[in-house]
Amino acid sequence: MTQIVWFKRDLRIADHLPLTRAAAAGSVIPLYVVEPQLWRQPDRSGRQWAFLYDCLQELREELAALGMPLVVRTGSVLDVLAELHHRIGIDGIWSHQETGSAWTYERDKAVAGWVRARGVPWTEVPQHGVIRGLKTRDGWARKWDAFMRRPITPAPAQIRGVAGVDPGTIPDADALRLPDDPCPGRQPGGRSQARALLASFLEQRGAAYHKEMSSPLTAAESCSRLSVHLAAGSLSMREAAQAAWRRLDEVRALPRAERGGWGAALNAYIGRLHWHCHFIQKLEDAPGHEFRNVHSGYNGLREGTFDEARFAAWATGGTGFPFVDACMRSLQATGWINFRMRAMLTAFAAYHLWLHWRETGLQLARLFTDYEPGIHWNQVQMQSGTTGINTVRIYNPVKQSYDQDPEGSFIKRWVPELRGVPQVLIHEPWRLGPMEQDAARCRLGVDYPERIVDHMSASRSARERIYAIRRTAAFRQEAAAIQSRHGSRKSGLPQRGGRSRARKRVGDGVQPSLDL
User: Fold this and answer.
1) Whole-model pTM?
2) Boundary (domain end) residue, out of 97, 127, 157
3) Does the pLDDT of residue 318 top 90, yes or no?
4) Buried-most residue among 167, 234, 246, 486 (CB within 10 A)?
């Protein structure tokens, strides 16, 4: 009985129920299919593949130690399955459910048709708190909590491999013909990296997480940095949640004087784990959010008016707003930036530059090594003001600069043209006079661009356009329906003993943070 374990975004052997069940059912071919068509989609990039390459290398070694190395094939999943079925015979396929992009959704539907036509059973197992076929959001948080508290599935002691199957080659970016995508600060992939990050966050780095997640000066160290591992599945959400709960129990057992800020930090982090699945659930329930405005009242608001020059300035970190440009350049170099800065970059593009969220969302998706479609597209729309149920947040890029980088050190690191500008003016270089520009060796329009818009007037104009739509009765009626289907009933997670903190709905204006 030959069982295929189809690895997708679950690149681990622990807490992998499909692998364990398949190992109990017969001989196993652990399979990963590299799909060139997927990597030609506009939301994919070389940095994302480089991270997965690391994960696949380590996964192959872990599986080999169990009895059968990871088998890698490049091409269409349907072609790969057809070849294996013809040559060996497939008695069952096992995988985790996936909420991905529209492309992966259509691919999974095609695979479902293939197995039905051949009578091959395909068992899909939920991977985290997203519920397929969900009828109502009522009680969703309790179901999430119950799922995360289930015992972690240990890796099988061994698997019976299938003789004569070539493991194949894991292609690099060049073999996939991916565009050059330098990312010198990219996080390395692999489960060992995930486990080390989880341990260091819960024991050391996360002590001030709740205070330091908002500023790019501190977030890179104080956030767990596990978002990319959760997206690839080199660590399961259940593993992260249970480890955080255990650590919270340890902290609560300490004398009050020794707890420090750990309790608040861990509660904040556990809440973000909940938000992770909350947003993916939205895309599971409404795949069209990847392409269409959540609220139809915004149809036509930005469509048909896309300023390519503004987009290019924003995408390259050349808007003339130092903090915005520093955030974009940091993201380009590292593949990660904290959530508040992601929100600011999106909102600046949507409101101040009046760019449609789809194109700016694709640009950010390619830059994020931790790109998670369910979170990404709903957050892009939320920060662009097109969901209809969230508070419109038009971030003031200058205020954010003063608040999050008061001394300008982040700006000076990523926008070296401004290193000679006095601290008092580094947030607003357009205030520099000719002599001050000469002294700073930074001529506006030559060494560093003039600001692309007047942010105050652009903000006023955007607010007027947005609220002109939101005031109508028809808008409010549709917004109520959206809230009923997709809005959170409660935010955060129940406390360890089953008690729940007071919570507000997302539609009431809560700003969820997803700094994982």
Assistant:
1) 0.93
2) 127
3) yes
4) 234
